[in-house]
Specification:
The chain is α+β, with helices and mostly antiparallel strands. The protein has helices at residues 22-29, 33-40, 54-69, 91-99, 116-130, 201-221, 240-253, 264-268, 273-278, 285-296, 333-341, 348-356; strands at 6-15, 18-21, 44-47, 74-80, 106-110, 135-144, 157-167, 172-174, 179-182, 188-189, 198-199, 232-235, 304-311, 315-323, 344-345, 366-367, 376-382, 385-390, 393-395. The chain has a single domain (6-353), classed as Peroxisomal Thiolase, Chain A, domain 1, CATH 3.40.47.10. Strands 1, 4, 5, 6, 7, 8, 9, 12, 13 and 14 form a 10-stranded mixed β-sheet that branches. It has a 4-stranded antiparallel β-sheet with strand order 16-17-18-19, covered by helices on one side. A hairpin with an 8-residue loop joins strand 10 (188-189) and strand 11. Helix 3 (54-69) packs across helix 4 (91-99) and helix 6 packs across helix 7 (240-253). The termini are far apart. Bound molecules: 3-hydroxy-3-methylglutaryl-coenzyme A. 3-hydroxy-3-methylglutaryl-coenzyme A is lined by residues 32, 34-35, 38-40, 82, 113-114, 151-152, 155, 188, 199, 201-202, 204-205, 208, 236, 238-239, 242, 280, 282, 310-312.
Amino acid sequence: MTEPLIGIHDLSLATAHYRLDHDALARHLGVDPAKFHVGLGQDAMSIPAADEDIVTMAATAAQPIIARHGGDRIRTVLFATESGVDQSKAAGLYVHGLLGLPTTCRVVELKQACYSATAALQFAAALIAREPAQQVLVLTGDVAKYALGSTGEPTQGAAAVAMLITAEPAILRLDTPSGLYSDDVSDFWRPNYRTEAVVDGKLSVEAYQHAIEQAWADYRYRGGRDLSEFAACCYHQPFTRMAYKAHRHLLHHAGSDAAPGTDLDSVLAAGTIYNRAVGNSYAASAYVGLASLLDHRDDLANRPIAIISYGSGSVAEFLSGVIEPGYHQHLRSAANAGAIARRRPITYAHYRELHQVEIPADGGDHKIEQESTGPYRLAALSGHRRIYESAEGRHHSSSLIQGK
Ligand code: HMG
């Protein structure tokens, strides 16, 4: 029996309502803007309004996928995030409700810093290999937040990506070998009692490079392709210069940095365009990079690409796949670019105000003023419940459970 081809059938991007330009940040921090534009490779970062979170961004990303394909064959929803809104309930359940997905479905949340979306993709592929008629909706989204005035502040951002994983995919078919590496490292983490991450920035950059080098070695050992075969490489991008640093590191490790044709821009640049404007989106970042690559290159049909995933703490995976012929017809390039272009510039004072906003924890009734203009928003908190609103109206959790 031949194995079914499995991979990404549809992919859609959403981001937040506001954007803070790095020029404004540099001005307020008294830093040379070139440090951000050239040194980090960032121009702007997405900032969620007070009525946005990972649920609203992920539902916004997934809604057009469900509109195009329907939800009937979706048996599993996996939400990969490190910005969870609850210690117990999977954020995907809110999205499942907002999108009206079938109740005959499993919904779970996955966490391992910026790596977890790649785990979700692999788990989805394994489920489909077992039952090729089913589809898996992979959601990934995060709000990257660091303390004001910290070195991490210019590497904030927010975005979500939704991907429909199926047999006989229209966009990307995954290769079977992938390379893995895990190690217990304290480079970046967020204890339960903190809203901002704790980070050892320099260590994190070193840990990232070491982990992807080891994951790549495992990928090669398992019969993976040579680096020179890839038409493009999509890296996890805490800031876009990191993709260049990491790729240079891998080429050096592979002994091919001096080889002819190793023009970094030709394999990296297209996959950094969206990330440069959105900032870090943690678990979603490599897939924001994939959306950017697909939307900006028209020469990828039948060519292999690599996805290089890193999550602090740390886990790395080097995976690859081949782009399907005709992939263009299935992309959402205008909508993806529109989500980024539509963001409203935020004043520095408003950005600081939003940075300090805390969700009330008293269990009372709190209405959240409408600020965002997307299809979904966090409308209220009541009895510790989160109440989301779609353009059509309010979404409450199942009335059966609430005894109404
Ligand atoms: P820093 O100390 O502010 O910056 O921290 P720097 O002094 O290292 O400068 C950065 C670059 O800008 C350097 O280039 C400078 O030379 C250059 P490099 O030497 O690296 O090539 N530079 C300039 N260039 C042009 N004109 C100028 C100028 N000035 C300086 N005038 C750091 C940077 C990344 C450490 C900080 O932003 C940080 O802590 N960020 C948060 C952590 C992070 O992003 N780590 C990345 C790897 S870990 C990861 O990716 C996982 C993560 O996403 C979390 C997860 O998994 O969940 C973070």
